[in-house]
Design brief:
Elements (H helix, E strand, L loop, with lengths): L3 H21 L18 E11 L2 E26 L4 E23 L6 E12 L2 E8 L3 E2 L1
Antiparallel strand pairs: 1-2, 2-3, 2-4, 4-5, 4-6
């Protein structure tokens, strides 16, 4: 017969193992989202994507405006889930003057077995008016 003390220790060990595994995954509510152009005056479209390419992670973000503006830009970020929050680990910024679109993309090597997502900050400036929005990719385990 198994002693109650051993059963208690096994149950405690199992509970700790389950809780520590669940804490490592990012929140399931973290889904991809695009910007909402209906809420913006200058920016007509913008998004960010994340995928695998050439043995690493590939991030691409873009921003489009309704018409040519003084400056249009995007900063694309690769983020890593550290168990508690998303942390920026790599990024690239691109901008264009007197144009309506810009794209930023990069490939980076990262450790495998981790959770990653991409984030993009989109912005536009025209006649002194500044506008920005943020979008996120879905989460992948790489």
């Amino acid at each position: 017969m198994i002693k109650p003390k051993i059963i208690f220790l096994l149950a405690a060990f199992l509970l700790i193992a389950i809780c520590s595994t669940a804490a490592a995954a990012p929140p399931s509510s973290q889904e991809a989202n695009q910007i909402d152009p209906d809420a913006l005056l200058l920016i007509s479209n913008g998004d960010v994507s994340l995928g695998t390419k050439m043995g690493g992670l590939w991030v691409e973000g873009f921003t489009e405006t309704y018409t040519s503006v003084d400056e249009v830009g995007v900063t694309a970020y690769l983020q890593h889930w550290n168990g508690n929050r998303w942390v920026d680990i790599d990024w690239e910024t691109r901008s264009s003057q007197n144009f309506f679109m810009v794209i930023s993309s990069f490939i980076t090597d990262v450790p495998t077995g981790q959770y990653y997502r991409a984030k993009a900050v989109h912005w536009a400036v025209d006649d002194g008016f500044y506008e920005s929005a943020t979008s996120y990719s879905g989460v992948i385990q790489y």
